[in-house]
Design goal:
Elements: H1 3-6, H2 9-24, H3 30-71
Helix pairs in contact: 2-3
Length: 72
Amino acid sequence: MSKKEQFSFEEALSRLEVIVEKLEDESISLDESIALYEEGITLSKKCTETLEEAELRIQHVAENHTDKKENE
C-alpha cells in the first residue's frame, strides 16, 4: 500500500490543500504539475470514498435508530 493510500481523511485533505497551493505556483515545472495533479486525483478519490462510506454508516445508524423507536 502506498503512502498516499495510508493517509487518514484529514491528512489526505490537508495534503490536497498543499497540492492546490503548489499547483497555483506558476514557477513549478510541467512534470511536477502533472505529478501533483495525479497525486491530487488519487487523494480526492480517497476522500470521496471515505465520505461516501461515512454517509452510508450514518444512514445505517439513523435507520436502526428509527426502527428501534418504531418498535417501542
